[in-house]
Structure formats: C-alpha cells, structure tokens
Amino acid sequence: MILMSKKLPMILSLSKDPVQVRQEQDVVFLKNRVKEVAVRIKMGLVNQTRLITAASELVRNMMRYGNGGVCLIEVVSSGRINGVRLTFTDKGPGIPDIAAAMRDGFSTGKSLGLGLPGTKRLVNEFDIKSKVGEGTTVTIIKWANG
Amino acid sequence: MDKIPILRMGAFLLVTIQVDLYDRLALNLESDLVNMVNKTSAKGVLIDISAVSIVDSFMGRIIGNIASMSKILDAETVVVGMQPAVAITLIELGLPLKGVHTALDMEKGMSLLKSMMDSDDPDEQETADDTITE
Questions:
Q1: Which of A77, A81, A98, B74 is most buried (CB neighbours < 10 A)?
Q2: Which residues form the Histidine kinase/HSP90-like ATPase domain (chain A) (predicted)?
Q3: Is the pLDDT of residue B3 over 70?
Q4: Whole-number average pLDDT of chain B
C-alpha cells in the first residue's frame, strides 16, 4: 500500500469577521470588506481581483438561491503564508446534485452556469457542502501569493 | 437610484462606468443603452470600463448582451480600458467575451468604431470571402 505522505499543514484563523448578506447593498459592503482584508495581508492585485470576483459569484448564488445568508471573512495562516478564507452559509433549499452544479454550463436559473466551476478555478481551496432542505456552505481560500 | 450616464457623440454613444457595478445597475444600463441605440440610431457604442475593478460572470454576461442586442439594432460595441487583472479573471472564470470588440483605450476604441463604420458593404463582402477561402 502506498503511504499518503502529503502533509496537510495546519490552518490557523487569525481574525473572524461575519458579514450578513440580505440585500444588494450588503453585497457592495461585503466586497469592500474582502478587499480591505486582502490588502491588509498584502495580497497582489491579480489575486485580490480573483478573490473578490469569486466572492461576488458566491454571494450572488447565496442571494439568488439561498435567500441571503452570512459570509465569514477570516485571515488564515498556514506555516508562513497568509490567506483569506471566506465561508458562505445560507439556509436555502440546498443543492440536490453538487456534481452537476460544479459542471461548466449547468444552471437551474437562467445564468451561464459558470459561477461555481469558475469560482473554483479562481481560488486555491474550494469546498462545498449542501443538504437539501437545510442549506449550503461554500468555503474558499485564496493565499496571498498562491 | 443610481444611473450610469450615456453620452451621445455624433453617431456613437459613450458610456463611462465610474462605479463598481452591482446587478441592478448593470441591468438598467443594459436596457437604457439598448433603448438609446434605438432612439438615436447610433452606429456604435463605446463602453469604458477602466474604473471597473471586478467583472464577474453576471457583469460579463451583461456586456455580452449589450453587444449582441446592439448588433441586431445595427450598432457595434467596443469595450475599452479593461484592467489586466480583470482580463485574467474573466478568462479563468471561463468567460472569453466572444463577439465583443475591445480596444486598449478610448482613443483606440473610437478609431476602431470609425474604421468599422467606414468599411461598408463591399468590404464586408471581402472579409466574408476570406473566411470562405480559408
């Protein structure tokens, strides 16, 4: 048997900042907060843009399909590198088929279906958990120079 | 309610987006612009996004929609001033903005629009031939 030697470094959370998202004005506020945090950890401009774009996609999903929710903004560190972790939690209807939702071009709304798969391409870590009838949680991490 | 101003300059419409777009604003811009193209029989639309730091899939779709809607109203759309980070993000997101003309800045965009207007039917025939022989 092959031993899995890939070491998972511990990810420490250095700051927590929950932001409620209920209406469109909150989206602008959230993007600004994410930007502030990214600038604070000296994330480069292109990575900032990737992170905020990813946040923009996820927050739209949360508003459209989950009736709003909470986004937790965290500064995380793993070894010597810092990053931003965003956790989007809604109490919406949940996603019955996550594999389908992660496919390019799949949408139950009338969008392009790029939101989830596109977001995954923009960030370093992407995790989605969903339970039908209970809600959806999406977690992303973008490292400062990842 | 915020509104993005649309300026008329000869046969062209100019739009400079100075704020970060949110969904409602982008949707309003789409319908305002298409109505303006119809009302003024504009031949070209120039959209300056140099002050826009984020274009996600929704905004990208709106830009694409404006271009195709204007196209069937006989107006060309040129998007100018996209920030490099936005270009990188759009491609990684999977949104290549097909069918949207782009130029680096306002000046180049303007001359692109003018050249597209100058090239009337005979030239269009030519380019059509080119693609066939290819």
A1: A77
A2: 46-146
A3: yes
A4: 88
| Interchain pair A118, B84: CB under 8 A | no
CATH 3.30.565.10 fits A12-143, yes or no: yes
B90: which residues sit within 8 A by CB, 6+ positions away? B55, B60, B96, B97
Residue A30 CB contacts under 8 Å (≥ 6 apart), including other chains: A19, A21, A55, A59, A71
Query: Contacts of residue B57 in chain A, CB cutoff 8 Å?
Result: 57, 111-112, 114-115, 118
**Quick check: A59 pLDDT over 50?**
yes
Contact B57 A117 (CB under 8 A): no
> Which residues does chain A have within 8 Å of residue B83's beta carbon, measured at their own beta carbons?
49
Quote the CA–CA distance of A31 and B24 in Å, as a whole number. Answer: 16
ipTM score for this prediction? 0.85
A135 touches chain B (CB under 8 A): no
Is the per-residue pLDDT at B133 higher than 50? Answer: no
**Can you give the pLDDT at residue B120?**
54
- Chain B nearest CA to A30, separation (Å): 12
Q: What is the mean pLDDT of residues A50-76?
A: 94
- In 10 A of CB A138, how many CB atoms? 27
Show me where the domains of chain B are located.
6-133
The answer to whether the CB of A102 falls within 8 A of the CB of A127 is no
What are the residue ranges spanned by the domains of chain A?
12-143
All residues of chain A having their beta carbon less than 8 Å from the beta carbon of residue B98 are none
